[in-house]
Design brief:
By secondary structure, the chain is of the alpha/beta class. It folds into 4 domains: 53 residues, no CATH class; 161 residues, Substrate Binding Domain Of Dnak, Chain:A, Domain 2 (Up-down Bundle), CATH 1.20.1270; 149 residues, Rossmann fold (3-Layer(aba) Sandwich); 202 residues, Rossmann fold (3-Layer(aba) Sandwich), CATH 3.40.50.2030. Helices cover 48% and strands 10% of the residues. It has 27 helices and 16 strands. The strands form 4 sheets. The chain has a 6-stranded parallel sheet with strand order 6-5-4-7-8-9. Strands 13-12-11-14-15-16 form a 6-stranded parallel sheet, with helices on both faces. Helix 5 runs antiparallel to helix 9, helix 9 packs antiparallel against helix 10 and helix 10 packs across helix 22. The chain is globular and about 65 Å long.
Amino acid sequence: MAKEKRNPEEQTIDPATRQMLELADELGISTAFSRADDMVPCNIGGAGMCCKICGMGPCRLTKDGQTGVCGATIDTIQARNLIRAIAAGAAAHSDHGRDMAFTLKAVANGEAEGYMIRDVAKLRTLAADYDIPIEGRAPEEIANDLADLYIAQFGQQRGIVVPITRAPAKRQERWKKVGVLPRGVDREVVESLHRTHIGDDQEATHILHHAIRTALGDGWGGSLIATDISDILFGTPAPVLGQANLGVLRTDMVNVVVHGHEPTLSEMIVAASQDPEIIAYAEAAGAKGVNLSGICCTANEILMRQGIPAAGNFLQQELSILTGAVEAMVVDVQCIMQALVRTAEQFHTKIITTSPKVKIKDAMHIEFDEHHALTIAKEILKVAIDNFKNRGETHIPDDKTDLVPGFSHEYINYMLGGSYRSSFRPLNDAIMTGRIRGVAAIVGCNNPRSQHDFPHTAVTEALLRQDVLVVETGCSAIASAKKGYMLGEAGLEHVGPGLREICETVGIPPVLHMGSCVDNSRILTVLTQMVEDGGLGDDIDEIPAVGLAPEWMSEKALSIATYCVASGAYVIMGGSNPVEGMADRVSDSTIVEQYISEGWEELYGGKLEFVKEVDEMISRTLDHIDKKRAALGLPEYDPARFGRSGDSRMIEIEALPVEERRAALYGEPGK
């Protein structure tokens, strides 16, 4: 039986998305939102109670004490399903890192058309961290050695994945003692699959022990490598001005939307779009030029570095085509809906796949090769420009919001201390005094079974009011951008007095955009430096901080959550719980759910919980932050302690007569 269909107001809080959903209804075009309403999710598989890893099943465990044909219990099945999802997510993000390492190698050897090393300082810093000689050597020589080191991390069979040495020393000792230091990125993913083959590992906690090792190979291995190399090749992000939402599309220009996760492609399309040859080609076609925008994490990559606007997050990919204004959507890997082709067929948009790993039936395929990057990027843009003449009626929403992204770990370090004394000390001090209650990292996907963007922005708003500093990545960051929380003082009316004073003093927006989903590794480096700067304990699990993924939907999110837990973070996932079972029918269905919370917390100081209600996410976040403050002996959070925000209060005081001004400042009448 189908669920009751929601109206656009129930499906999303974003006005541009609502407008396009109304148009989709008028035209009779399906979207992820309507398909989610039509598709009733399987409550057995969704709760982790179905096993299909061999041909004797699938086995559905719906009765108390029931086992699969092989005798597998529900806790074994849930653990197997969870680690397979974590392994797939780790493989996706880490494979991205592998491709980046091969690109760095090609650039170092002069074999990658159009690329160059843009952040030599970061290259030298990283090389020195890994004992690669840097003195008297050209950047290309250093990059070649660093690329070789990074490439080796994927196929390495023994030892440890070297970037993990950048974690806090106490954390590394903890991993070593428990026995979860990853040996090689690929080895841990392969072992996850081996352990879960029929007849292999059958003890839930033992299976989940290796899930930690696999996820660490992603977070402190493949993902961190991807971020490092992106910064070296395309520049470490610093604040720029950008825009977000579907209103960034133009009626007078060729609109090309890049979607996916690979910056090697999107950065080169940015370069090609600014080439005089391409501009002239577009003008000859009757357009003023090429207007680039992004969807999903590709949007975040080019937004962070180039200020290229974001047309939207994950659930807006089909809706951008519904505007009728997109000449081409260029996609690479991850989070790309197969439904794009069917939607595009009803408009003039061309869907162009570019990765050798990804093809979509009936889409155009122009394979991208870093060795001929600029040439291929121009070819793609010319296909889009040639399609401009086929554009029909357009329905571009007016909605777009300015934002300031670009808060890399390096820039935050600089902005808090300047060139000569860059430090996280001011942030630590603000937390210690109570001006900032704690820190929350809100990350992850959109899920059409939630009200689009609402969980992200509702949690963000509530935490800001409670003086919690928020950093965001991925689709969550785009959700907050659309609400105006990433532009100077635009969102400060939602911010508590202590945090507001910090924002005004430092000159930052209340929510810091830190990049794409793979850039969650930046959050790990921020937490590490907070530990190293002192005052908040000597390991990540002591910091008053929480990670949240309010609308998670991908296997990558499970890998991210697991490596953050292993690093010492409390992580809250919204929406569905893949290991909850059905407690009313299966008495032992909570073994895995309890272990990833209580068991992991005992081992790593972090825990993973799935929470459906937004209010409960907020409550648990604040409770955890306050518990960590108390454990550190910090003063209890008191919003009244700092009164009203300094800057806004001073503006009001300056407008008072002299006598009243002195009374307001010093508490006594002046003479």
